[in-house]
């Protein structure tokens, strides 16, 4: 028994399903209390067979999260390999947010963050 995709008309109000991403707090709650749906939002157009353009709140539609700086570096030991990772501080309206990212992927996407020497977690005392 398969569910048929729901269809909406321009002007309908819909709830938007949100998923946790990289452990970032998006809507003010954490874990089980984090909402599964936000809205309602007005449908302003149809993009595909089951994709719609929504009239979002200003803070949801224009804000782009960008990494600000590399806070820390570590090398994770995986069975037979070493995986360099970096702790990244992101800009956010809700305050500072931090995530661990793979260094080589992050260096390709944001090379300007690696021009300065970031602190190393492998310093000796």
Automatic annotation (TrEMBL):
<keyword id="KW-0548">Nucleotidyltransferase</keyword>
<feature type="domain" description="Tf2-1-like SH3-like">
    <location>
        <begin position="11"/>
        <end position="63"/>
    </location>
</feature>
<protein>
    <submittedName>
        <fullName>Putative reverse transcriptase domain-containing protein</fullName>
    </submittedName>
</protein>
<dbReference type="Pfam" id="PF24626">
    <property type="entry name" value="SH3_Tf2-1"/>
</dbReference>
<keyword id="KW-0695">RNA-directed DNA polymerase</keyword>
<keyword id="KW-0808">Transferase</keyword>
<dbReference type="GO" id="GO:0003964">
    <property type="term" value="F:RNA-directed DNA polymerase activity"/>
</dbReference>
<dbReference type="InterPro" id="IPR056924">
    <property type="entry name" value="SH3_Tf2-1"/>
</dbReference>
């Amino acid at each position: 028994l398969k569910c048929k995709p729901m269809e909406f008309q321009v002007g309908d109000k819909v709830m938007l399903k949100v998923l946790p991403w990289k452990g970032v707090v998006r809507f003010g709650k954490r874990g089980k209390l984090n909402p599964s749906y936000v809205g309602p939002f007005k449908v302003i157009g149809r993009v595909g067979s089951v994709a719609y353009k929504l009239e979002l709140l200003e803070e949801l539609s224009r804000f782009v999260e960008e990494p600000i700086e590399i806070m820390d570096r570590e090398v994770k030991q995986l069975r037979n390999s070493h995986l360099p990772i970096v702790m990244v501080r992101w800009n956010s309206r809700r305050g500072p947010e931090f995530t661990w990212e793979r260094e080589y992927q992050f260096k390709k996407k944001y090379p300007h963050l690696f021009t300065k020497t970031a602190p190393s977690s492998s310093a000796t005392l």
